[in-house]
Request: fold
Amino acid sequence: MDIQNKRIALVTGATGGLGTAMCKQLFTDGFHVVANYRNKEKAVEWQKTMAAEGFNIEIFEGDVCDFDSMANMMKDIESKLGSIDVLVNNAGITRDGRLAKMSKDDWHAVIDTNLNSVFNCTRNVIDGMIERKFGRIINISSVNGQRGQFGQTNYSAAKAGMHGFTKTLAMEVAKLGITVNTISPGYIATDMVMAVPEKVREQIVAQIPMGRLGGTHEVAHLVSFLASDATSFITGANYSINGGQHVY
Ligand code: CAA
Reply:
């Protein structure tokens, strides 16, 4: 907690579409929000825009793919602001293509950014959470980790792996006041989804019973809900938020 008795929430990959909405919602709901970024120029501009809209967000640089970089960033945050109470593992990329065409680099980039990052970040905050007997870890996975998606062996493997991590860590820290949950968004109106070729995207939207893409604010509300003190009995869960695209 920070000096104003606000819980500190760290969002990785915060300057993207989903991350921005999460930061705004967490701020609105009373958290001291810390945004992790890799691109300094973009982050500084982003912080200014957020402040102009009334959202005062701290920004901290670090590469989620690099364990030592995350260790240093977490130490820096804790020494400057206070202990990290909520970690949202949100950083993620796509490198889509059929496996028969996929390069080794595209495989590793996605596994590093989307899955190894979860270890790199969580491992560097878990000791403090255990000591303080409080923590909220929220892993942002995907409908495509639950069901698979043509052209995404790397992404689907990483996103499915995130929930495996969630389930096991949830058991390990259940008695210590720490909850660990997964959110699996479907197709949300972000740059990542808009980068899918239009024709392919139209076919995907046609498979969504609600007939539309999700809004970033819809995912952000769920993040803030799971970050709250009130959700202390929810752990190891995987929340689908996909407009009915995948029900099971
Ligand atoms: N099912 C079956 N066959 C499919 C297919 C599908 N969904 N999509 C493509 N194909 C077939 C084509 O019909 C074509 O077959 P023929 O050669 O027999 O005509 C063949 O695959 C084309 O293969 P290529 O490798 O040449 O395809 P491509 O270069 O045109 O692109 C792709 C393939 C990159 C996978 C492209 O289809 C694509 O971008 N798909 C969307 C992937 C996607 O949904 N990504 C989500 C990104 S957003 C995100 O990930 C956020 C989140 O969490 C939801």
